[in-house]
């Protein structure tokens, strides 16, 4: 069966510091991968998605970037964190069904980031 | 553009009460519809889904029917438990752009013993 991991689970960082969050998926090959952010008390916003190694699409302009160095690894980064980057970051995967198509998305346990 | 609207929360119920959480959507074509549940401090878990009109998704006593005519996907459970306390998200994905899940704002459910 497929498993999705995220770490760290919680992170407290000062403003202006760098960020690296990691997501890995087990038990599947060539998945679509996604990064979402959930601000306190609000819904989910898609930040990035990837359909393959080195292929990243950004949904919103922001202080963050994403990379996919391996098939089942997805990394969310920032060079300098802002207060507004605080939130709950969720990684998700789905099976690749062909160009423009995707299966149900399954979510990881999330990383809670607090920027002080 | 595509959107999902959920009823405002929190919804507070006593144990064994009947639950309905309303969800309506706006989208062209025939999107797939989902309910996800988020327990405190955790990620989202898929609760159920439906991929075409009149489909009924069900899981753990929860049900939702894809109603094309009313563009709705209301979540129901006949008898809630304290352990059902969580935030419930309705979402859609379009068949021609299914990389993106469009989420509602979430509805918090509190079940009291």
Summarize the SSE layout with pairings:
The complex is a heterodimer of chains A (116) and B (113).
Chain A (H helix, E strand, L loop, with lengths): L2 E5 L2 E4 L5 E8 L5 E7 L5 E9 L2 E4 L6 E6 L2 E6 L8 E8 L11 E2 L3 E5 L1
Parallel strand pairs in A: 2-11
Antiparallel strand pairs in A: 1-3, 3-8, 4-5, 4-9, 5-6, 7-8, 9-10, 9-11
Chain B lengths: L2 E4 L4 E4 L4 E3 L1 E4 L5 E7 L5 E7 L5 E4 L2 E4 L9 E3 L8 E8 L8 E2 L3 E6 L1
Parallel strand pairs in B: 2-12
Antiparallel strand pairs in B: 1-4, 3-9, 5-6, 5-10, 7-8, 8-9, 10-11, 10-12
Rounded to the nearest angstrom, the distance between the terminal CA atoms of chain B is 41 Å
Helix content of chain A: under 10%
Percentage of β-strand residues of chain B: over 45%
Task: Tell me the number of strands of chain A.
Answer: 11
* Relative strand content of chain A: over 45%
Rg from alpha-carbon coordinates of chain A:
14 Å
Tally of DSSP β-strands of chain B: 12
Summarize the structure.
The complex is a heterodimer of chains A (116) and B (113). With 116 residues, chain A is an all-beta fold.
Notes on the structure:
The complex is a heterodimer of chains A (about 120) and B (about 110). The N and C termini of chain A lie far apart (about 40 Å). Chain A has strands at about 5, 10-15, 20-25, 30-40, 45-50, 55-60, 65-70, 75-80, 85-95, 105, 110-115. Helix content of chain A is about 0%, strand content about 55%. In chain A, the strands form two sheets. In chain A, strands 2, 4, 5, 6, 9, 10 and 11 form a seven-stranded mixed β-sheet that branches. Chain A contains no helices and eleven strands. By secondary structure, chain A is mostly beta strands. In chain B, strands 2, 5, 6, 10, 11 and 12 form a six-stranded mixed β-sheet that branches. In chain B, strands 3-9-8-7 form a four-stranded antiparallel β-sheet, with no helix packed on it. In chain B, strands 1-4 form a two-stranded antiparallel ribbon. In chain B, a hairpin with a 5-residue loop joins strand 5 (about 30-40) and strand 6. The model of chain B has no long low-confidence stretch (mean pLDDT about 90). Chain B has about 110 residues and is mostly beta strands. The interface of A and B includes residues 42 and 100 of A.
């Amino acid at each position: 069966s497929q498993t999705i991991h995220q770490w760290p689970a919680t992170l407290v960082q000062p403003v202006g510091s760098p960020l690296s969050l990691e997501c890995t998926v087990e038990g599947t090959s060539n998945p679509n991968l996604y990064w979402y952010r959930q601000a306190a008390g609000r819904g989910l916003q898609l930040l990035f998605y990837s359909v393959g190694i080195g292929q990243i699409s950004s949904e919103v302009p922001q202080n963050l970037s994403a990379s996919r160095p391996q098939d089942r690894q997805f990394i969310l980064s920032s060079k300098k964190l802002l207060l507004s980057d605080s939130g709950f970051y969720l990684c998700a995967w789905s099976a690749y069904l062909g160009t423009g198509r995707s299966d149900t998305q399954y979510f990881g346990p999330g990383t809670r980031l607090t920027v002080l | 553009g595509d959107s999902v609207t959920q009823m405002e929360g929190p919804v507070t119920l006593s144990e064994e009460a009947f639950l309905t959480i309303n969800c309506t959507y706006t989208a062209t074509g025939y999107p797939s519809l989902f309910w996800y549940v988020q327990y405190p401090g955790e990620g989202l878990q898929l609760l159920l889904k439906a991929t075409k009109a009149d489909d009924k998704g069900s899981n753990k006593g929860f049900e939702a029917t894809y109603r094309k005519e009313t563009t709705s996907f209301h979540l129901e459970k006949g008898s809630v438990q304290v352990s059902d306390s969580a935030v419930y998200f309705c979402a859609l994905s379009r068949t021609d752009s299914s990389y993106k899940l469009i989420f509602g704002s979430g509805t918090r459910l509190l079940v009291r013993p």
